[in-house]
């Protein structure tokens, strides 16, 4: 990881560089692919301020802190960055677990080449009422159901009215 140092009203000594590099090197055990870091050190009267921005492939971490001593300020900022890195790592782990759990049983069976026979699942039953196409359309549009099976009033045949993906409705009628 490349580390760039900027000092404002302070000369960045080799000892400060070494402390900052050692503390930032610890971030590698929490996150892979950290590319560069920018460390900004500033002194105003008795306040020692440090700001660190770390860029990775998929993450940017930043922390700032202020104490009376530059070494303790660097330690404070590094602790904050470690907390952010741990939190980001845990988010990634949870997301990977969740994505792994999304595999459907059918897809899992195909992947493991275990044949799975299709099952018939009964959802609910409703009486087969004779109604016109307009009545069936009103009844289906008033619910969240995907389809409606009804007896067409004029032909006395079973018909299916279904909701299409484009927002329209489709009608399936048996041939004569």
Describe this protein's structure:
This protein has 176 residues and is an alpha/beta fold. It has two domains: 2-101, Ribosome hibernation promotion factor-like (Double Stranded RNA Binding Domain), CATH 3.30.160; 130-172, Sigma 54 modulation/S30EA ribosomal protein, C-terminal domain (SHC Adaptor Protein, 2-Layer Sandwich), CATH 3.30.505. Helix content is 34%, strand content 31%. The strands form two sheets. The chain has a four-stranded mixed beta sheet, covered by helices on one side. Helix 1 runs parallel beside helix 2. The radius of gyration is 32 Å and the shape is rod-shaped.
Question: Which terms would index this structure?
Answer:
single chain, 176 residues, alpha/beta, Double Stranded RNA Binding Domain, SHC Adaptor Protein, 2 domains, four-stranded mixed beta sheet, 8 strands, 34% helix, 31% strand, rod-shaped
- Tally of structural domains: 2
The assigned structural class equals alpha/beta
Q: Write down the overall mean pLDDT.
A: 85
Q: Write the H/E string, N to C.
A: EHEEEHHEHEEE
Distinct helical segment count: 4
CA-CA gap between termini:
75 Å
Gyration radius (Cα, Å) is: 32 Å
Sum up the overall morphology in one term.
rod-shaped
Instruction: Output the CATH homologous superfamily of the largest domain.
Output: Ribosome hibernation promotion factor-like
Strand content: 25-35%
Helix content: 25-40%
What is the annotated CATH architecture of the largest domain? 2-Layer Sandwich
Strand order of the biggest β-sheet: 1-2-3-4
Q: Give the low-pLDDT segments.
A: none
Total beta strand runs: 8
CATH class of the largest domain: Alpha Beta
Biggest sheet details? 4 strands, mixed
